[in-house]
Amino acid sequence: MRRAWQIGFFVAILACAGLLFYYQRSRPRPERIEDLDVKTEQVTQSPRLAVAPIFKPDAGVVVRPRQAVVPSEQDLMQQIRANVKSNPQLAESLAREDRQRFPDSPESDERDALLVDALINQQRIGAARSETYYYLDHHPDGRFAEHLFVMTGVHPRPSGPGR
Question: pTM for the complete prediction?
Answer without folding.
Answer: 0.56
